[in-house]
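Slack export, channel: ligand-projects

TW: morning all. Re-posting the request from yesterday since it got buried. We need the structure predicted with the small molecule present, not the apo form. The ligand is 2-acetamido-2-deoxy-beta-D-glucopyranose; the SMILES is in the block with the sequence. No rush, but it would help planning for next week.
GE: picking it up
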Amino acid sequence: MMVLLLTVGIVFQLSESRVTCRNDEGNEVDWYILYKLPLGDCSGLSYLYMDESTNGWKLSRNTIDSSSGTLANTLEPLLDFYDRQTEGFGYILYNDQLEKKAVSPSFGHSKGLQLMYIHPYAYDHFIPKTFHMELQNVAQMTGYPTEAPWFSVEGLTSLGGNYFSSFAKYTRFHDDLYSGLIVKYMPESLYVKGWGNKGGSVLLMSNCSTRIPHHVYNVKKVQLWKGLR
Ligand SMILES: *[C@@H]1O[C@H](CO)[C@@H](O)[C@H](O)[C@H]1NC(C)=O
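GE: finished. pasting the full token output, ligand included:
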């Protein structure tokens, strides 16, 4: 089964080697996924963590706003930059306010283009002049695709040699991300847990149409960690 997750913020830089994913202990990891738990059983600040070594989700002892958790450890170069204007460092912090969107777990120079498609709301950024102009445009929200195709699929290889696929679509794609794009690249059916449309009545439906190569199933409930839903 495949679980797709959305992301809210990405930081990147292009020349400093110190920027890397770090776990709760501050050690370098090739990739990780954080899932912040909703308000409910917890404060709304607890999070689940997964990387290659954890064999699935584990509940972090930290809260997402902790100064010693995965997020703080990974964002340390950014905090350093705020303090010391580290040279050759650039970043975009963005929020995807769109309902459904592709994930780019990490990206380098050219992969910044992927961001054009999702037209993110960049609430903070600093792009040095030596960086690609496209990144500058994306940060200022003036960069977006001007001709078809209205989607982009990119392969990303991590330092550890893991291969990721990044899917992005622009509003003019006018089709669903999962049934209209991702499923075409999948060897089997896709199980999707979307955010739904909060407060509204429009929820993503399963799609078993013969017009798409595999089925897209709408997952209604995921049990991520013992009692937590
Ligand atoms: C299934 O997905 C395809 C591609 O997104 C779309 O054209 C079609 O309308 C969908 N069918 C249903 C029943 O939702």
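GE: first-pass observations. The first strand starts at residue 21 and ends at 22. Confidence is low (pLDDT under 50) at residues 1-10, 13-17, 98-112.
TW: perfect, thank you
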